[in-house]
Design brief:
Distance between the termini of chain B: 31 Å
Number of helices of chain A: 15
CATH class of one domain in chain B: Mainly Alpha
Radius of gyration of chain B: 29 Å
Shape of chain A: globular
Structural class of chain B: mainly alpha
CATH superfamily of one domain in chain B: MetI-like
Strand order of the largest sheet of chain B: 1-2
Number of domains of chain A: 2
Largest sheet of chain A: 11 strands, mixed
CATH superfamily of the largest domain in chain A: Periplasmic binding protein-like II
CATH topology of one domain in chain B: MetI-like fold
Largest sheet of chain B: 2 strands, antiparallel
Number of strands of chain A: 11
Chains: A alpha/beta (340), B mainly alpha (755), C alpha+beta (355)
Shape of chain B: globular
Oligomer: heterotrimer
Strand content of chain B: under 5%
Order of helices and strands of chain A: HEHEHEHEHEHEHHEHEHEEHHHEHH
């Protein structure tokens, strides 16, 4: 009797995981919201039978991980997340050059991303930076409606603003680079120093401020607009703001990791991710970015880039490691480590 | 270990003759097997790791023996890796013993020399050259710009054989009563502890004083360690926040004081009052053991966050403005006190129960009033227990990672800072190592203080058992104080666990949407039927399977090594026993984040290149939880007559046979305790493994952590509830599988170590 | 399987040290095949360590140990053909009586059926038929001990060892078990090493006794020799009670000597002692008390204490030469405390002790 129990236990522990093993597999580092990661990997497995081993982490962290694993890469493909770290990975020769047959069918901004990196990365979606506020919290605190970056410096917003942490989040770095391009570096840091006093927490991941704003844990959150749109559609009392001074945007990218264990499967994922059908999955996962394939439907709720005052974001310059490190270090020194 | 105990025992049994010269033969047989294994590993099997598919995939056979798959002998002769040659020479030495009788003095000497030299050469060959080139100047001078990947199956077998040759050698020379099994297991355990505890920890200490290029710079270390963000006292002077070291200590002290006070209140209620549900209080003690990290913090956010349920009521009823007070010291403190109070209760209830009532009666017969008796007799007798609970709380707070991560806000502590220094975009292992040194220093300091403090206190007064007296009732003031602190807290704890229970089944508790849903469970644990077979499409399955697998593999290994260590400590006499005991307990005192950092620093390069594998998780758990097995084993062995072992020995049962047939059946309670603890702990641990998980081997706690970070609280809570259920089931299963010890007499109690 | 038959045990200059403490110091002795030799001494004298050295439970620091002519010094317990009956019996509490006894043959690789048959044979031999299925905790102390003996005998070892086998039994049972052990040893012609601190027990069962003191052998020999001719004051005192008294050796003539003890001059074997001050060992029963003064030189004394012990009287007698401990068979006519007595010496029970 006892022997049977032991055997049953062993069988349960050791065989059940075996069931999940399909023919091949691909290790995907995913830097978008977890629902989208899961939906993509499910659809991919359903279409190809290839098992997806998924890690969801922010783009900054994923970049750090790929760099740390450079000697012995464990991932195959890095899908999603702000473009800058993808460009840096390309620059550091961590990712592999690959020209997809689908490339000509992509929007110009997506192709430009590929050209800038020597075809080591490609755009898969775009989204504008901005902020969101919780209308209920705003009314309760009798705060004015913020429309511009500068509005966030008003005394009413002291301790009410949340953004992600530039050293760990690609979103926050995009914000940093956007402000520098908008106003020049000195003026931008002047602004960030003042904003520092308004911040209640620098979160580790990029979309966290929109989650927290939706829940009312913070009144204002700085993030990519599509993250907040997703929350608003879910029913959160959020209003999404594209700042009046103008704002930057991200080109969500995808790269194949150099020397990854499953090269062929990585390419299959790559091609799959560039199909209009796969790009249309985003809406089902409540992600409202603009897809990069011309034939992919643009979600109705997505903030139209045409309606937003976009700056001419210099990915070539602000995507380099040196510039990124310089700005982040300066931010840490002059802003992050300062008292509030 | 191909040539280990089991082999010895089997041969002994098969070959035992009437003149019983089996021992001599066993050693000779052992040596022959070890040599065969050693040469198999050295001259036949691939010396280096053969890639991700592993040795069993046999893909390496196609190109064998090229530079990737060749055995050491071929590597040394044909592929220019001459540094592997001395290992073979050392392995040739013991070949001479095959012709010698076992009693010959050279027999043992050759084995010891061959084994020791081989191990030294293997260590130099392994550590001297990594995949980016030679590590040390003199190695570079000898071999030029040499490179090699991490050791593989051939190296592991050869090193194992060298260890066993060495052990057989010292046994043949008459050490350990000539018992090769004891010599072997001791050597193996020492080697494993050196490899997986001492070496990585030493590596952390070292990398704290190195710069990015590996040069020693004490100056950089001093700079780092004295930095303002570590030791700054800005919070006192006003303005800025305090250094992370002070934050950690401050939080630790507060958590220790509050959890001890509450634990004491519970302990007094449970032992000294007529409170009705005091049996229920004891159930509290197992809660922290089976509670996954993060969930307490989540429940707190749902209650007290800015949009929390209670916050909402307070806003409506008393017009108290919503604020973010929870994020920071207050929130972390509450979460830690919730987690640690049951532990303090567990420590204190033993002490309070142990106080001999006759001492109190003596005081009362001398005319002292209840209050005075409490103050002058009861209280002083409880002091050692209180000291112990305080220090335990302090150490646990230092090691805690999950709560500060979720609730810390801008209040930074060492464990989270170490984490961010490693996983953030600001990757700085040097800083992580330095912070780890500070944390290690604090923890060891606390243990040292505890040792000093309690070492001088006499426990004689608190061991009075079978005492017939009646315990003194609490003085009225103390009683009401206990009720007033403990009961609201108990209600609070129940509320928290109620939220964990409900949270996974409703749409979004945080936003007040309490409609029932299976949505979160489906997201995490959906199973679909597809054209390619059963498809576990739920997002949690992968980490769930890995967690179960890793825990299920780690638990028996932990029990085996822990109990074997206990048996060696309790039953064998050997030089350096004290040092051995200290070394085995060491890994328990080291905070998880430190171990995590130590492992990725140590095991990301050859010769042991196992980061990103499931093996590193198993190893981490085994060596972190092993001391618990050792303690449980020591306690149980103290109650088993040593002459039982000796009787078995004189009846021809070799020490391995004795261990399996006599000692282990009597150790069942300790085995259960160790299996349960290590299994459950492997499922709830987060601080060490958060550094070690990878895409392929993700663990449940790490997955829950990232869901929390992304704000998906309901999913995290749903997953945690599943883990709790799985843990409870496995506890029952283990209990059933190992079974009760069949004994005519009273079963000795074995206490489960506190986590 | 042929019987091993009894073997000798030889110690030559065996030393056992624990750190700085020497538990056994250069001890040499031989146990002849088929004899029962007792290691006797006060606690801490090294007798148990010596026994454990024979068993292989301790490994000698120096010297050699042979069993049946084979050097076993470095062999572990499992490799020696030696079995032991422990003070606590050490029955495995999780095994039945049968499994306990069958343990030895089982772990030495016999088939299960053979092992059981061997166990049954020994259990029958010790009168334990019918107890096979019991657990050890369901047996009385005496039965447990017989199981322990059966278990030790089952492999027919070259040497059988007993470590204080009677100490957990009540006084009545001790004599019977003692006799059983002796009877068994003689019937089966076993070589037995036996440890006890009880000199009576030692005298009763042994072919030879080795008296140990402070890690060394104080004397070894047959019981009678030890009792009647102690080699030193320690042995004289430890084996039976003895009064150790100062005396003067007057002259030597052949093997005998004239010894003056107080007013009495005795003719005794000199045992190597020279003229001058010596010690006399006088057994308590060698003093002959009389209430009237005899007409030859004798010792005068006063009864200081008297105790009635049923079979005999015990007296403390104060004399000029010191306090004497006297045993008198005459229980019908006890001598009152305070009375003056005259003391004569018997023919035996008086020995010169070399100092």
């Amino acid at each position: 009797m006892r022997t049977i129990a032991i055997l049953a236990m062993l069988a349960a522990f050791l065989i059940a995981p075996g069931l999940a093993r399909a023919q091949g597999e691909v290790v995907v580092y995913c830097s978008v919201l977890v629902d989208w990661c899961n939906l993509m990997s499910q659809e991919f497995t359903r279409a190809t039978g290839i098992r997806v081993v998924l890690t969801q982490k922010g783009s900054g962290e994923t970049f750090a991980q790929i760099r740390a694993e450079a000697n012995n890469p464990r991932g195959d493909v890095w899908w999603g997340g702000t473009g800058d770290p993808h460009l840096q990975a390309a620059e550091a020769n961590l990712t592999e050059e690959y020209r997809s047959p689908a490339l000509p069918r992509l929007h110009d901004w997506a192709q430009r991303q590929a050209q800038q990196s020597g075809f080591r990365t490609v755009g898969i979606y775009a989204g504008a930076l901005g902020f969101t506020y919780n209308t209920q919290a705003l009314a309760r605190g009798r705060m004015p409606e913020p429309r511009c970056w500068r509005d966030l410096l008003q005394p009413a917003f002291r301790g009410e603003v949340q953004m992600s942490n530039p050293p760990s989040s690609g979103t926050a770095y995009t914000a940093l680079a956007t402000l520098v391009q908008l106003w020049g570096e000195e003026e931008a840091f002047n602004y960030l120093r003042q904003l520092h006093r308004q911040i209640n927490q620098y979160t580790r991941s990029g979309p966290a401020p929109s989650r927290n704003a939706a829940r009312g844990e913070t009144t204002v959150g700085i993030m990519f607009l599509h993250d907040a749109v997703a929350e608003a559609i879910e029913g959160a009392p959020l209003r999404v703001v594209a700042p009046c001074e103008g704002t930057g945007y991200e080109i969500g990218s995808m790269s194949i990791i150099r020397g990854g264990p499953n090269r062929e499967n990585a390419r299959r994922w790559y091609e799959f991710a560039l199909t209009p059908a796969a790009q249309a999955l985003a809406v089902r996962a409540k992600s409202y970015q603009i897809p990069s394939h011309r034939d992919a439907p643009v979600p109705e709720q997505a903030p139209r880039l045409a309606d937003i005052r976009l700056i001419d974001y210099d990915f070539a310059r602000y995507g380099t490691t040196a510039e990124r490190n310089r700005l982040i270090q300066r931010w840490e020194r002059e802003v992050g480590s300062q008292p509030r | 270990m191909p040539c280990s105990s089991a082999g010895a025992a089997r041969f002994a049994r098969r070959l035992a003759e009437r003149n019983r010269t089996g021992g001599a033969r066993a050693i000779k047989r052992n040596v022959a097997i070890c040599l065969a294994a050693g040469w198999l590993g050295y001259a036949v099997l691939p010396w280096y790791g053969v890639g991700r598919d592993g040795i069993l995939a046999l893909a390496w056979l196609a190109t064998y023996p090229d530079a990737a798959s060749a055995p050491a002998l071929v590597q040394a002769l044909a592929h220019g890796r001459a540094w592997l040659l001395p290992i073979g020479l050392a392995l040739a030495l013991p070949l001479a013993t095959l012709t010698l009788p076992r009693e010959h003095p050279a027999f043992g000497r050759l084995l010891v020399a061959g084994g020791a030299l081989g191990l030294i050469f293997a260590a130099i060959a392994g550590f001297g050259i990594i995949n980016s080139g030679p590590r040390w100047g003199w190695v570079a001078a000898m071999f030029g710009d040499a490179r090699q990947p991490g050791f593989g199956v051939g190296a592991v077998i050869t090193v194992g054989a060298l260890v066993m040759l060495f052990a057989n050698g010292i046994a043949a020379r008459g050490n350990f009563r000539g018992d090769a099994f004891i010599a072997g297991s001791l050597t193996v355990i020492v080697a494993l502890i050196a490899m997986f505890v001492a070496f990585p920890v030493a590596g952390v200490l070292l990398s704290a004083v190195q710069d990015a290029d590996g040069n020693f710079t004490i100056q950089r270390f001093v700079e780092r360690i004295l930095a303002d963000n570590v030791w700054g006292l800005g919070c006192i002077a006003g303005g800025t926040s305090c250094g992370v070291a002070w934050n950690t200590i401050f939080l630790g002290i507060l958590a220790a004081v509050f959890s001890t006070a509450l634990g004491l209140a519970f302990a007094l209620i449970a032992t000294r009052t007529t409170f009705r549900w005091k049996k229920g209080l004891r159930v509290l003690t197992i809660l922290p053991i089976i509670t996954p990290p993060f969930v307490i913090s989540l429940a707190l956010i749902i209650l007290f966050g800015r949009t929390g349920i209670v916050t909402g009521w307070l806003g409506v009823l008393f017009d108290i403005p919503r604020s973010r007070w929870l994020y920071g010291l207050p929130g972390v403190l509450i979460a830690q006190v919730l987690s640690f109070t049951p532990v303090a209760f567990m420590v204190l209830i033993g002490v309070v129960e142990g106080i001999s009532p006759s001492l109190e009666e003596a005081s009362q017969t001398l005319g002292a009033k209840a209050a005075k008796t409490f103050r002058t007799v009861t209280w002083p007798l409880m002091r050692p227990g209180i000291a112990s609970a305080l220090l335990l709380g302090f150490v646990e707070s230092l090691a805690d990672f999950g709560n500060p991560l979720v609730l810390g806000g801008n209040y930074e502590v060492l464990s989270t800072q170490i984490y961010f220094a490693i996983v953030g975009a600001a990757y700085d292992p040097g800083r992580a190592a330095m912070l780890a040194v500070v944390l290690l220093f604090f923890t060891l300091g606390a243990f040292w203080v505890q040792n000093r403090w309690l070492g001088e206190t006499s426990y004689v007064t608190v061991t009075g058992k079978g005492d017939a007296g009646l315990t003194a009732a609490l003085p009225r003031g103390v009683r009401w104080l206990c009720y007033a602190t403990a009961l609201p807290w108990a209600v609070f704890t129940l509320t928290i666990y109620g939220i964990i229970l409900v949270g996974g089944f409703v749409h979004d508790m945080g936003r007040g949407d309490m409609t029932f849903t299976w949505r979160h469970y489906l997201t995490a644990f959906q199973v679909e039927q597809t054209g390619h077979g059963l498809f576990f499409s739920g997002s949690a399955w992968q980490s769930f399977f890995t967690t179960i697998q890793v825990s299920a593999i780690a638990a028996p290994l932990t029990a085996a090594i822990g109990l074997l260590t206990a048996w060696l400590l309790a039953r064998q006499r050997f030089a350096g026993r004290r040092a051995f005991e200290f070394a085995t307990m060491m890994s328990f005192a080291i905070p998880g984040t430190v171990i995590g950092v130590a492992y990725i620093v140590a095991f990301n390069v050859p010769p042991i290149e196992i980061t990103g594998t499931g093996m590193i998780l198993v190893i981490c758990f085994v060596f972190r939880n092993m001391p618990v097995g050792t303690r449980a084993g020591l306690a149980a062995l103290a109650q088993i007559d040593k002459s039982l072992d000796e009787a078995s020995l004189t009846l021809g049962g070799r020490s391995a046979t004795t261990l399996f047939r006599v000692v282990l059946p009597l150790l069942r309670p300790a085995i259960v305790a160790t299996l349960v603890f290590s299994f459950v702990h492997a499922m709830t641990a987060v601080s060490a493994i958060i550094f070690l998980v990878s895409a392929r081997y993700n663990m449940a706690t790490a997955y829950i952590g990232s869901r929390v970070e992304a704000g998906e609280y309901a999913l995290a809570i749903a997953y945690s509830s599943v883990l709790i259920v799985v843990m409870l089931l496995s506890i029952l299963l283990i209990q059933f599988a190992v079974g009760q010890r069949k004994l005519g007499r009273r079963a000795p109690a074995v206490s489960l170590g506190t986590a | 399987m042929p019987k091993s038959g009894p073997s000798s045990v030889e110690f030559s200059a065996v030393t056992k040290r624990y750190g700085t403490v020497t538990a056994v110091d250069a001890v040499s002795f031989t146990i002849e095949p088929g004899t029962l030799v007792t290691l006797l001494g006060p606690s801490g004298c090294g007798k148990t360590t010596t026994l454990r050295l024979i068993a292989g439970l301790e490994i000698a620091s120096e010297g050699t140990i042979s069993i049946g002519g084979r050097d076993v010094t470095r062999l572990s317990a499992a490799d020696r053909s030696v079995s032991m009956v422990f003070q606590s019996y050490a029955l495995f509490p999780h095994m039945s009586v049968l499994d306990n006894v069958a343990y030895g043959p089982t772990v030495s690789g016999r088939r299960k059926a053979d092992a059981r048959a061997m166990a049954h044979e020994k259990l029958d031999l010790l009168g334990l038929k019918g107890f096979e299925g019991r657990m050890p905790s369901e047996l009385s102390g005496g039965q447990q001990q017989r199981v322990a003996v059966a278990r030790a005998l089952v492999l027919e070892p070259e040497v059988l060892l007993f470590d204080e086998p009677l100490s957990n039994l009540d006084a009545k049972l001790r004599r019977r078990v003692r006799e059983d052990i002796r009877e068994l040893q003689q019937r089966l012609n076993l070589t037995v090493g036996y440890v006890t601190h009880d000199q009576q027990e030692a005298l009763a069962v042994s072919d030879r006794i080795i008296v140990m003191s402070n890690a060394r052998i104080a004397q070894s020999g047959p019981p009678r020799e030890l009792y009647e001719a102690p080699a030193n004051p320690f042995v004289a005192d430890f084996i039976g009670d003895a009064n150790l008294l100062d005396a003067e050796l007057l002259s030597v003539e052949g093997a005998r000597a004239q010894v003056r003890f107080g007013p009495v001059v005795l003719d005794l074997p000199h045992r190597g002692a020279g003229t001058g001050g010596i010690k006399l060992s006088i057994r308590p029963e060698a003093f002959l008390l009389s209430a009237t003064r005899p007409n030859r030189p004798c010792i005068a004394g006063t009864i200081a204490k008297a105790a009635y012990l049923g079979a005999h009287m015990e007296y403390s007698v104060t004399t000029e030469g010191g306090e004497l401990f006297v045993v008198d068979r005459d229980v019908m006519r006890p001598i009152a405390v305070g009375s003056t007595v005259w003391i004569d010496l018997a023919d035996h029970g008086v020995t010169v002790v070399p100092v």
